[in-house]
Design brief:
Length: 142
């Protein structure tokens, strides 16, 4: 929203760009920890698509619908409180709508639950590496 508004784009161009960025950054935030956990690109992409698509889609539909419904929100500039107030409200509404869906998915082992076990693998690798480092330091002193 901010970029489209700053560049003076029309409503639909702004919405489309905002949706594109939401998916790009949403998937990226899921992919990075999966790559750190040692997953390959194909496996990580499958998990990111399976875990985030529904959540991002719901957030974007709700967020953009609210922005389009609030009179003047899309036409207000970045220096106007109407723009920022509408955006904050739209994101809050989208979060409230997406939360129960995400909770339902996680409770059934879907959504973000698909990637949680890989976050634990990454943490285990970090802990093991730190323990090995401490062991080497300790043994070199004796």
């Amino acid at each position: 929203m901010v970029i489209g508004s700053a560049l003076g784009w029309g409503n639909w161009a702004t919405v489309l760009f905002a949706v594109l960025l939401a998916f790009v950054f949403g998937y990226a935030m899921t992919l990075l920890p999966l790559f750190r956990a040692g997953l390959g690109v194909g496996s990580a992409l499958k998990l990111a698509l399976a875990s985030d698509t529904i959540s991002i889609t719901i957030m974007e539909i709700a967020d953009n619908a609210v922005m389009l419904i609030i009179p003047g929100a899309m036409d207000s500039g970045l220096t106007e409180p109407l723009f920022w107030g509408s955006l904050i409200f739209a994101l809050a509404v989208a979060g409230v709508i997406a939360f129960p869906v995400n909770r339902w998915l996680i409770a059934r082992g879907r959504g973000h639950a698909l990637v949680h076990k890989h976050h634990d693998q990454h943490l285990s690798k970090i802990i093991t590496a730190e323990e090995n480092h401490q062991y080497k330091q300790h043994s070199s002193h004796h």
